[in-house]
Amino acid sequence: MSESKGMSAPADFEPRIVAIFCNWCTYTASDLAGTSRLTYAPNVRIVRVMCSGRVDPQFVLTALREGADGVLIGGCHPNDCHYQEGNYKALRRVTLLHRLLEQFGIEKERVRLEWISASEGDRVQKVVNEMTEQIRRLGPLRLEPLEAREAHAAGGGDEARSPAEPAAIGTGGAA
Ligand code: FES
Description:
Blueprint: E1 17-22, H1 26-35, E2 44-49, H2 57-65, E3 70-75, H3 86-104, E4 111-115, H4 121-138, H5 146-153
Parallel strand pairs: 1-2, 1-3, 3-4
Helix pairs in contact: 1-4
This protein binds FE2/S2 (inorganic) cluster.
Residues 22, 24-25, 51-53, 75-76, 81-83, 86-87 line the site of FE2/S2 (inorganic) cluster.
């Protein structure tokens, strides 16, 4: 379970957000925001993929496990996907991811899907700023290490917890 709920964020907390943007629309829009000199929160690290349908849920879980406080996925508007229906796949995956995150005790607002076309640089600015503020309010994502989860399951206490250890989320390689 996430330890973030109910804990106040440190005053100097700066959210780390991984933004996974579709090459054809949202990534181009982020470029447009830059060339239009629209400034937005520097808390995002943008990863370009060819389509939002390329975003495997494991990418999101890995980002959260490795230290991101939130993940923003940007894709083409419905019916504008260059690969026909990749964005619909993304929508279905994010819906499932939200359910999964809630089961882990992680706020679903930490993962956000937005449709942003290539001409909407101003929308990139708005969404990034909004999400940064939202994650700032939620505070850092503190994930319970896998060992602590196993200790709890086995009837152990909090003493097995070590914040420096990898988090108990995802299926691939958490050790
Ligand atoms: S090509 Fe942009 S979401 Fe599929």
